[in-house]
Design goal:
Blueprint (H helix, E strand, L loop, with lengths): L8 E3 L13 H16 L13 H7 L3 E9 L14 E2 L2 E12 L3 E5 H4 L2 E7 L5 E10 L4 E5 L22 E6 L7 E12 L9 E4 L11 E3 L5 E10 L8 E5 H14 L5 E2 L2 E8 L2 E11 L4 H5 L6 E5 L2 E2 L3 H9 L6 E8 L2 E8 L1 E2 L5
Parallel strand pairs: 1-13
Antiparallel strand pairs: 2-4, 2-6, 3-4, 4-5, 5-8, 6-7, 7-8, 9-10, 9-12, 10-11, 11-14, 12-13, 13-14, 15-22, 16-17, 17-18, 18-19, 18-20, 20-21
């Protein structure tokens, strides 16, 4: 799975087509010509329903940035790169995208764009380069914040409400595809709530707006110019856009961004259990089945056991293992919660003091 920044793409079969015979080119162009002429003959009124993105692009592009990353060879691949753009000794360079969320110079991007960087440079829409500092990153949502120091306030955009978006609505993606600099593409929301196997917080917006390597970390705008997604991954047999892109929804990104601004890290709740969806005689039960309990964890101290079926968290129904993981993760460490569970066919409640998820920040 590599992304539009070069590190997260759901990979299909790659077919390398042979170079076209030069003798076949005129015929190919001739076959395309009638279609092009036919398109020109379509009455203007037939296209009145299509949106014009010119004003939107002009308004928001000043807040979209290109990101250049230098990483050391031998570390994990600099997944922000559209391709490996070159090597200088042991240094590998790549590129990604981002957007300015605060005029003082706070930039949102993907964590995989800057994860192993030794140097990060942000280029604003007017061509100004800034050396950037990584404020913090969150692995579970693949988000990161950068800080640059401008001489004057910068153009910025705000996070919208992704929950208000509907399948079929128009969106515009912006970023740095293939390292070319500020570019926009348009499309619609194809689906919501996509689980692509990236992690427990998968809740992606799917779009057919073309997203390519180098677009990682760039914004997905609604027609009001609000960021409703952060472009993160693509499904592609070839490595380029196949019309299936995925963006982290702004509703999921907002608390992460706020936490990173406050303290450079995201503290999440943790039980210390491994869980799976339960099945009984071929039918999936509603709940999260505890498969294991880590020694010394909050779950162990509270007396949770392997085989317990958790059915509710603080009175809210838990229908899947993913629901339990998410429900606990959004809680502040130290909070005591009430778990409802089935044990040996009997219902009971157990109080658990939530711990801090290890390896965060």
């Amino acid at each position: 799975m590599n992304g539009p920044g070069g590190g997260r793409r759901l990979t299909g079969v790659t077919v390398h087509a042979p170079l076209p015979d030069s003798r076949a080119v005129p015929r190919r162009l001739a076959l395309l010509l009638p279609a092009a002429l036919a398109a020109c003959s379509v009455p203007a009124r037939a296209q009145r329903g299509l949106p014009d993105f010119a004003d939107l692009a002009e308004r928001v592009l000043p807040a979209v940035v290109s990101i250049q990353v230098t990483s050391r060879e031998g570390a994990a691949e600099p997944r922000g790169g559209p391709v490996e753009r070159g090597r200088r000794g042991q240094l590998v360079q790549g590129a990604g995208s981002g957007f300015i969320i605060e005029p003082s110079g706070i930039v949102v991007t993907n964590g995989h764009v800057v994860g192993n960087a030794t140097r990060v440079t942000v280029t604003t829409h007017d061509g100004t380069d800034y050396v950037a500092r990584v404020i913090g990153a969150d692995e579970l949502t693949d988000l990161a914040l950068l800080r640059i120091t401008p001489r004057a306030p910068l153009a910025a955009v705000s996070l919208g409400v992704s929950g208000n978006m509907r399948v079929g609505q128009w969106v515009m993606a912006a970023g740095n595809p293939f390292g070319l600099g500020g570019s926009v593409t348009s499309g619609i929301i194809s689906a919501r709530g996509r689980d692509i196997g990236a992690g427990p917080f998968d809740d992606f917006i799917q779009t057919d707006a073309p997203i390519n390597p180098g677009n990682s970390g760039g914004p997905l705008f609604n027609m009001q110019g609000e960021v409703i997604g952060i472009n993160t991954a693509i499904y592609s047999p070839s490595g380029a856009s196949a019309g299936i892109g995925f963006a982290v929804p702004s509703d999921l990104a907002r608390p992460v961004v706020e936490a990173l601004i406050r303290g450079g890290r995201v503290d999440r709740g943790w039980l210390g259990v491994s869980v799976s969806d339960a099945e009984e005689q071929g039918r999936r039960q509603r709940g999260a089945l505890i498969m294991g309990v880590e020694r010394g964890s909050p779950a162990a101290r509270a007396g949770l056991r392997q085989g317990d079926l958790v059915t509710a968290l603080n009175g809210e129904a838990v229908t899947t293992s993913r629901a339990l993981v998410r429900g606990v993760a959004i809680l502040p460490p130290g909070e005591t919660v009430r778990l409802t569970l089935q044990r040996a066919g009997r219902a009971q409640e157990i109080a658990v003091q939530i711990g801090r998820r290890p390896n965060e920040g």
